[in-house]
Write a structure and sequence with these properties.
Blueprint lengths: L4 H8 L6 E6 L18 E2 L2 E2 H4 L2 H6 L1 H17 L4 H12 L2 E6 L5 H4 L7 E3 L2 E8 L7 E3 L19 H14 L34 E5 L8 H13 L4 E5 L10 H8 L3 E6 L14 E4 L2 H13 L14
Parallel strand pairs: 1-4, 1-9, 4-5, 9-10, 10-11
Antiparallel strand pairs: 2-3, 6-7, 6-8
Helix pairs in contact: 1-10, 5-10
The structure holds ligand BV8.
């Protein structure tokens, strides 16, 4: 049912639509200027973002990984929530049994005024930091940029300086490299920052802090997983909005199947078709295009109209 607003609105306003679950991905923030994980081949310049979002990468090269996250923190701070974030935030205040699971770590849903009791950051946040010392429980919310003087200059996307040096070497064997040649800002070289100049835990004073995000190969926060499970056990989800996600990361993508198994309906907001875990679902609504444009239109009956009798307003999911 591609872009079938009429039937979607009819269901939204019916007695059969009491409980709504939302799963968001990077596509929700595209209109805010933040690249998706798999857009442009998932590269942050020459690095595959998936390779950097792992505990091993941080263990091997905390300086590189911190520069990657410092760059993403800067971009997220510069970005503004878009109409899609605001529409979902309104929904969270208007519909009693509504829960949003976001895979995004950019804090834009929170900045859009989303009801915090109904927003779960499944993969953590760029703006929460935690100590790497297992015996230290330090955690903080920190939006400062740069976090340390050594992390200044990470505002520009960077190329892999090792690959760049190889190119330069190659170039000098063929042509003379003009001495006054200045590399463009796109090729700001990656710095080798000593641990002592990375964010240091203010409590235990000797360990470095890390971004409090869930890296590939790390378990999701138990409290978050338990909250979603409890919501799914306590409620039969009538409608799941699958917004701007390739459903390629697990166990987040698994929630789509759980709702389907409960007989819940799906509404996909994506610029592409075929993004549900096992391909397109003929019974699902597909709003093909920018989530920032489609969400306000699709959710208008609940967000703009008077309180709907089928979805009372109160504040607990
Ligand atoms: C774990 C934080 C176990 C970091 C992220 C099966 C079950 C369980 C695990 C696995 C499994 N199979 C494989 C795994 C392992 C792995 C995994 O899923 N790998 C994938 C690559 C196959 N999963 C894990 O490692 C998870 N941990 O399972 O632990 C365990 C248990 C006990 C003990 C030890 C271990 C942890 C996964 C979390 C990883 N962290 N983020 C950071 O951000 O730096 S994931 C990261 O990538 C994002 O958070 C997000 O979740 C994901 C990217 O996905 P999307 O958001 O969907 O973005 P993408 O670019 O892919 O797609 C964008 C979509 O938007 C596209 O469809 C596009 O068409 C659309 N779009 C674009 N523009 C728009 C738009 N749509 C609408 N409007 C637009 N304008």
């Amino acid at each position: 049912m591609a872009n079938d607003l009429a039937s979607f609105h009819k269901f939204l306003k019916s007695k059969d639509c009491q409980v709504i679950l939302v799963l968001c991905g990077a596509g929700l923030s595209t209109s805010s200027g933040l690249p998706t994980f798999r857009g442009s081949g998932g590269l942050w310049k020459n690095y595959n973002s998936m390779d950097l979002a792992t505990p091993d990468a941080f263990l091997i090269d905390p300086s590189l990984v911190w520069q990657f996250y410092s760059y993403r923190r800067y971009c997220a701070l510069e970005a503004k929530p878009n109409e899609g974030h605001f529409a979902l935030a309104k929904l969270s205040h208007k519909v009693s049994k509504c829960l949003t699971i976001t895979q995004n770590v950019d804090n834009l849903s929170a900045r859009a005024g989303h009801n915090r009791q109904k927003l779960l950051e499944l993969h953590g946040s760029l703006f929460r930091l935690k100590c790497t010392n297992f015996t230290c429980s330090h955690k903080e919310f920190n939006e400062k940029h740069p976090l340390t003087p050594a992390l200044s200059g990470t505002e520009h996307e960077f190329a892999n300086s090792r690959k760049r040096k190889a190119k330069e070497l190659e170039a000098t064997t063929e042509v003379s490299w003009e001495s006054d040649h200045e590399p463009s800002s796109d090729f700001t070289p990656i710095k080798e920052i000593p641990d002592t100049e990375l964010p240091i835990c203010p409590d235990c004073k000797d360990a470095i802090l890390r971004p409090d995000v869930v890296w590939f190969g790390e378990p999701l926060p138990l409290s978050v997983v338990d909250t979603v499970d409890e919501f799914l056990v306590r409620n039969k989800v009538d409608l799941m909005l699958v917004v701007g996600t390739s459903c390629s990361v697990w166990p987040a993508a698994g929630y789509v199947d759980r709702v389907r198994q409960q007989g819940g309906k799906l509404a996909v907001f994506n610029t592409e078709l075929g993004t549900l875990p096992d391909g397109d679902d003929v019974h699902a609504w597909h709003f093909l295009g920018d989530a920032a444009e489609w969400l306000p239109k699709a959710l208008a009956p609940l967000c703009d109209g008077p309180e709907q009798s089928s979805c009372q307003t109160n504040d607990a999911a």
